[in-house]
């Protein structure tokens, strides 16, 4: 995504694909080209939608590791097709293929990570994605910057300035293809598909215990009980509620992923170089340097999320991040307004807000919403729910990729105000509807929703269950006065679970 975004202002790229050129055009032609540019960039997300939705079927049929392997292979094909494009049509097809591979990959990895992680480390294991995503974005933009200085001559074709950054994308999925063959399959998927012996073996390895130990027995029993209680496992179950509130959970997963996009992160990521060059008035070199340095904040944001996600919980990070991102977007609207003109102080503050936005969004959204979607979905339909929730990411990604160049062209800096308002509205949405899931086994999260009777119950039930856990831990019996949202289930087990 970031590689392509950094090439949009490159002369050699625009010479090859003049229908996407918004740098050397003006007036109606620039408006038309900006729409074409937005559509072509957004086609990547169309592929992502179909790639994610394919996991509704293939996610449970093939297993987590095989899907990860195959989607990385498709990603390599897409990267090579893009880098070898001479015709506009080939570039368009390549964007779709690339999105298809990455869409399926992104829909599967958080599920696999969640299912192989112990409850007390699940959050930190999954949000490490933010560290590597940030590092990848930074690497992509620095490669763009380095190859910006490559000019055509009798020895080197000038198109290498954009072809090499595009083909370089293939290195990472090739690496992932090699390593996934050395890593374990999800024990929950193995047990779900009837391979209990292999699932027990993987669980024992993950828990560093003997296969016949009590902790492995308890985890296998909990997984099997969850499979019994949560329905048939058909992907269409997510559109029914029932005792386990499956539709409610699928809706929360998709809504969280919508928040991840509507906070505005890809408005910044896709068009960082364009924003600095066209809207903040920087020259081509400085705009690329500043844009390439901005994602360097993301690994630090990822590290902060890593150290806080299992200590503070999911809800505090989401709430704090949404509020802070609203302030950043409002600040951007003010510092880039026509009234600020060429004021150096306003320009500096605009850059500060952009950097702060990148950092904060990594803390609250880069991996957290994918983690949350995987956590709240029951095992039977976890792959399907994550496929649909990830398709939601790509759908809103497509929407924003389409609207961003048009939005900036039509309303300029006021486009930031839209996202300031959206982030402000996310705060009460998370507070009232999203339950805390930290330190819960995936099977205990099923119990939160089994005890809930309406859309407002899960946060309250999760707090009540946490109080029960604390009382059991200190040796006190749970209070007999139950909240009317709770069932008469036995007190929570406190043995460690995967």
TrEMBL record:
The keyword Zinc-finger does not apply. Residues 479-498 have a biased composition (Basic and acidic residues). Keywords: Membrane, Transmembrane, Transmembrane helix, Transport. Residues 474-498 are annotated as: Disordered. SUPFAM superfamilies: MFS general substrate transporter (SSF103473). Residues 1-438 form the Major facilitator superfamily (MFS) profile domain. Pfam families: Sugar_tr (PF00083). InterPro entries: MFS_dom, MFS_sugar_transport-like, MFS_Sugar_Transporters, MFS_trans_sf, Sugar/inositol_transpt. It is found in: Membrane. It is a multi-pass membrane protein. GO terms for molecular function: carbohydrate:proton symporter activity. Belongs to the major facilitator superfamily. Sugar transporter (TC 2.A.1.1) family. This is Major facilitator superfamily (MFS) profile domain-containing protein.
């Amino acid at each position: 995504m970031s590689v392509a975004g950094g090439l949009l202002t490159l002369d050699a790229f625009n010479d090859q694909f003049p229908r996407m050129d918004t740098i050397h055009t003006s007036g109606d032609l620039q408006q038309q080209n900006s729409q074409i540019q937005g559509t072509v960039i957004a086609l990547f997300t169309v592929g992502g939608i179909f790639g994610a939705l394919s996991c509704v079927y293939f996610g449970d049929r093939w297993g987590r590791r095989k899907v990860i392997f195959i989607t990385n292979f498709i990603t390599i094909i897409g990267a090579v097709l893009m880098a070898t494009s001479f015709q506009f049509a080939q570039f368009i097809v390549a964007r779709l293929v690339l999105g298809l591979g990455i869409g399926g990959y992104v829909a599967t990895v958080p599920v696999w990570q969640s299912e192989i992680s112990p409850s007390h480390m699940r959050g930190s294991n999954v949000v490490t994605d933010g560290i590597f995503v940030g590092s990848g974005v930074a690497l992509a933009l620095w490669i763009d910057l380095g190859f910006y200085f490559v000019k055509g001559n009798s020895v080197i074709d000038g198109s290498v300035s954009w072809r090499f950054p595009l083909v370089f994308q293939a290195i990472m999925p090739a690496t992932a293809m090699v390593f996934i063959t050395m890593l374990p399959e999800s024990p929950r998927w193995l047990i779900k598909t009837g391979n209990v012996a292999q699932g027990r073996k993987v669980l024992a390895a993950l828990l560093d215990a003997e296969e016949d130990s009590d902790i492995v027995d308890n985890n296998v029993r909990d997984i099997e009980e969850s499979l019994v209680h949560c329905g048939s496992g058909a992907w269409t179950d997510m559109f029914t509620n029932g005792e386990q509130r499956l539709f409610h959970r699928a809706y929360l997963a998709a809504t969280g992923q919508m928040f991840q996009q509507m906070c505005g992160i890809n408005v910044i990521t896709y068009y960082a170089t364009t924003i600095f060059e066209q809207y903040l008035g920087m020259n081509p070199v400085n705009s690329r340097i500043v844009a390439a340095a901005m994602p360097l904040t993301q690994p630090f944001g990822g590290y902060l999320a890593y150290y806080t996600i299992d200590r503070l919980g999911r809800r505090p990070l989401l709430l704090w991040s949404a509020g802070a991102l609203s302030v950043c977007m409002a600040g951007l609207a003010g510092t880039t307004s026509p009234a600020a003109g060429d004021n150096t102080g306003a320009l500096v503050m605009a850059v500060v807000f952009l950097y702060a936005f990148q950092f904060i969004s990594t803390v609250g959204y880069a991996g957290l919403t994918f983690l949350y979607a995987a956590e709240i979905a029951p095992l039977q339909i976890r792959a399907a729910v994550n496929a649909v929730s990830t398709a939601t990411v790509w759908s809103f990604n497509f929407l924003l990729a389409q609207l961003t160049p048009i939005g900036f062209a039509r309303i300029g800096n006021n486009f930031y105000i839209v996202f300031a308002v959206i982030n402000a509205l996310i705060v009460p949405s998370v507070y009232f509807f999203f339950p805390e899931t930290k330190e819960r086994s995936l099977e205990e999260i099923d119990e939160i929703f089994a005890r809930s009777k309406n859309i407002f119950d899960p946060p309250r039930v999760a707090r009540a269950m946490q109080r029960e856990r604390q009382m059991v831990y200190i040796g006190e019996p749970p209070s007999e006065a139950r909240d009317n949202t709770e069932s008469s289930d036995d007190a929570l087990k406190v043995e460690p679970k995967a």
